[in-house]
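Hey, I'm writing a tutorial for new members on how sequence and structure tokens pair up, and I'd like a real worked example in the thread rather than a made-up one. If someone can provide the structure for the chain below, I'll link this post from the tutorial.
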Amino acid sequence: MKIVCHELGYIYPGAKTPVLSGLDLVIEPGVTLLKGYSGCGKSTLLRLLGGLLEPCTGRIEAPQLPLLGSREFLRKAFAMVFQELNLLPLASVWRNIELSCRIAGVPTEQGREWLNLLGMEPFADRKVESLSGGQKQRVAIARALSKSPALLLLDEPTSGLDDHNTSIISAAIQRFSQGSDAICVIASHDHRLDPLAHELVDFHRILSLSE
């Protein structure tokens, strides 16, 4: 499986210059780490890969995945952890995980396994709003991994976290990527994640500062 970006471009409504322009990129199974300055288009690329935005120019080819942005793709093949996390704050940790599993049509036992691996099983009955920032991030990661997605997108998954939380999240991402043909794309400034990368894409090199 692979994803191929051809001459990919995107400009936000009302903006004068594109955030991405003429991007050619091949993404293969494993962990691809997107590095670069703030505003260079890393998060935009994640949303384009997830079918959450439509390219203004160019195209994305992912023939072994359901149509990007389609209901089947969003339910089963794709998972993304946004910087905002988008957890259900008044629901329990387990309810957040359970709903994700049921929507994706996967056994809820998978959710239990990832909660345990990420050290959040003891908090399963706690409301999300009562958790610390690092704990919420681990719940969001567990929810995404529980779907066993073919495409996992992570936007700054360890931003602002201490070494303890970062090491737990790193171990989970590494386990997910081992022995699998799934694709994981991470946008991050965090050099602590560099050892996870099978491929590193430096936006400083592939895009000019004016873009």
